[in-house]
Amino acid sequence: MTTEAPVLQARDVGFEYVPGVRVLDGWSASFRAGSMTALTGPSGRGKSTLLYLLGLMLHPGQGHIAVDGMDATRMPDAARARLRADRFGFVFQDAALDQTRTVLDNVTETALYRGQSRRDARADALGLLERFGVDVPPLRKPGQVSGGQAQRIALCRALLNAPRVLLADEPTGNLDPVTSDLVVDALREHAAGGAAVIVVTHSPEVAAACDEDIRL
């Protein structure tokens, strides 16, 4: 019987923002396809920083981050950017929408960067917006929607490419209980489809919905 290799793996990762003050030191974990993992613990323990490291948006000071067996740690920035666009989806804590662009353009941006046709990307995006009940005109700007709607728009953007790895930072933080359940169900469904889903959360309910809880 063979064991499938991890989709994403961190080995002995260390990071510091200020020399001599380590946020992470010798941290290791593996994330497999079909799994949903919670990263939990008190504020200030480096959970969001770890998510940025796993998502190749920060370089570790030590150790390695591997994606599908490829060591991405020392890749050139252009290669890391291509890998992020091809295999990762992100839901940031503050939604991180471009305030100058429409809701629809915010959702389709990464798909267009990957080379998907504008027509197909728009059709897929509109389907996701409807699925998550984002009942606003798609040409509206992010500044004209609520915080909960912005977070759901960010989720649609993350799911549009059916990413191999989905990273979410407090994805239910601005949502009511009903919508929170919808989002958690969507994350679990995405994991069940063969992705590795990693969620930073302070919510016991979200952590309980995950297959594993890694506490920092």
TrEMBL record:
Q: Which PROSITE patterns does the protein's record reference?
A: ABC_TRANSPORTER_1, ABC_TRANSPORTER_2
What GO MF annotations does this protein's record show?
ATP binding; ATP hydrolysis activity; transmembrane transporter activity
Q: Which UniProt keywords apply?
A: ATP-binding, Lipoprotein, Nucleotide-binding
| One Pfam assignment | ABC_tran
Reply yes or no: does the keyword Nucleotide-binding apply.
Answer: yes
Family that this chain belongs to: Belongs to the ABC transporter superfamily.
List the protein's name: ABC-type lipoprotein export system ATPase subunit
